[in-house]
């Protein structure tokens, strides 16, 4: 039966049960064109939590009721995962259909609050190529993108990438490297490098890796001083597919939250760590004394 409810009710609904018994083993996508990234440059993102998302966007949670044509019962096809394309099928039948209206209604409110141009937001499978602007090298098209488009641009020439996403089988990749078979331990770094490359190519700091067992949200920041040859750091947080219910961070809520964060033009580009603030902190210009002239102070405010 199709679902309906407020934004938060849709985004925290129980995910479908999936049959993972026939997933293949093997290598993940690798390319010499991906950005350099070492394992010690992949860091935790500890402030990506339900409480911080609620503090920033809780005023959107009760928008609704919204209606979704997603169906939770995916027994049989497409709930039987035998290859990566089947993960995409689940996203098309479930995650995209759940997130669609919360994305659109949440974005309308955020853009109004920020006083920025109203743009449509959408999530699309294989919806946009990613090309290194400094070379002719072509990257494999990302599985998913969430992007903004100008309502006055019918040809979509002014698309702004907000969030990149990529699908993986959980038999090939997991956020916890100890869950990978010994012969495939080298798989672990490659999806991070892949999504990092998309983010760098298209000037957005947000991405995610989705498997049938978790979503791993990513935020990129820059560190050109410590390692000029590999000047990126990737923060990540894993959210289990099994999460659901009131007060719980779920896969769909996590993807939606990344999109909401990206709507602020000051929080979408990749910056250094000092300008990549925790989720419960916001820059604010405050009255300063004469000796503080020229300095900027922070105050804990809602993220948007």
SSE order and pairing:
Elements: E1 3-5, H1 7-11, E2 42-44, H2 50-57, E3 66-68, H3 84-114, E4 119-125, E5 144-150, E6 160-167, H4 189-202, E7 206-211, E8 214-222, E9 232-240, H5 251-262, E10 282-284, E11 297-299
Parallel strand pairs: 2-9, 6-7
Antiparallel strand pairs: 1-3, 4-5, 5-6, 7-8, 8-9, 10-11
SSE topology string: EHEHEHEEEHEEEHEE
Based on secondary structure, the structural category is: alpha+beta
Number of domains: 1
The number of distinct helices, counting runs of at least 4 residues, comes to 5
Q: Helical percent range?
A: 10-25%
**Which geometry do the CA atoms define?**
globular
Largest sheet: 7 strands, mixed
Would you report the number of β strands? Answer: 11
Q: How widely separated are the two ends?
A: 34 Å
Q: Strand fraction band?
A: 15-25%
- Uncertain residue ranges: 284-304
**Nearest-integer average pLDDT:** 89
Specify Rg, calculated over alpha carbons. 19 Å
**Strand order within the widest beta sheet:** 2-9-8-7-6-5-4
Overview features:
304 residues, alpha+beta, seven-stranded mixed beta sheet, two-stranded antiparallel sheet, 11 strands, disordered C terminus
Structure explained in plain terms:
This protein is an alpha+beta fold and 304 residues long. It has one domain (3-284, 294-299). Helix content is 23%, strand content 20%. The chain contains five helices and eleven strands. The protein has helices spanning 7-11, 50-57, 84-114, 189-202, 251-262, and strands spanning 3-5, 42-44, 66-68, 119-125, 144-150, 160-167, 206-211, 214-222, 232-240, 282-284, 297-299. A hairpin with a 2-residue loop joins strand 7 (206-211) and strand 8. Helix 3 (84-114) crosses helix 5 (251-262).
């Amino acid at each position: 039966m199709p679902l309906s409810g407020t934004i938060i009710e849709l985004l925290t609904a129980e995910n479908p049960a999936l049959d993972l018994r026939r997933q293949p083993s093997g290598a993940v996508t690798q390319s010499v064109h991906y950005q350099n990234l070492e394992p010690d440059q992949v860091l935790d993102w500890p402030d990506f939590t339900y409480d911080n998302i609620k503090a920033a966007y809780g005023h959107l949670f009760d928008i609704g009721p919204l209606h979704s044509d997603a169906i939770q019962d995916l027994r049989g096809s497409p709930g039987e995962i035998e290859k990566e394309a089947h993960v995409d099928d689940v996203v098309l039948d479930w995650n995209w259909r759940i997130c669609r209206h919360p994305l659109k209604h949440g974005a309308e409110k955020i853009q109004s609050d920020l006083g920025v141009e109203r743009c449509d937001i959408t999530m699309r499978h294989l919806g946009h190529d990613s090309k290194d602007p400094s070379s002719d090298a072509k990257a494999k098209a990302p599985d998913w993108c969430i992007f903004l488009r100008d309502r006055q641009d019918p040809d979509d020439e002014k698309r702004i990438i907000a969030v990149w996403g990529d699908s993986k089988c959980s038999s090939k990749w997991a956020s916890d490297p100890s869950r990978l078979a010994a012969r495939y331990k080298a798989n672990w770094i490659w999806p991070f490098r892949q999504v990092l490359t998309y983010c760098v190519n298209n000037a957005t700091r947000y991405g995610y890796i989705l498997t049938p067992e978790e979503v791993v949200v990513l935020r990129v920041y820059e560190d050109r001083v410590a390692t000029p040859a590999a000047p990126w750091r990737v923060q990540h947080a894993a959210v289990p597919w099994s999460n659901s219910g009131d007060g719980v961070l779920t896969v769909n809520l996590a993807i939606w939250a990344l999109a909401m964060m990206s709507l602020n033009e000051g929080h979408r580009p990749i910056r250094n760590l000092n300008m990549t603030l925790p989720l419960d902190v916001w820059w604010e210009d405050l009255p300063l004394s004469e000796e503080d002239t020229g300095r900027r102070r922070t105050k804990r405010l809602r993220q948007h």
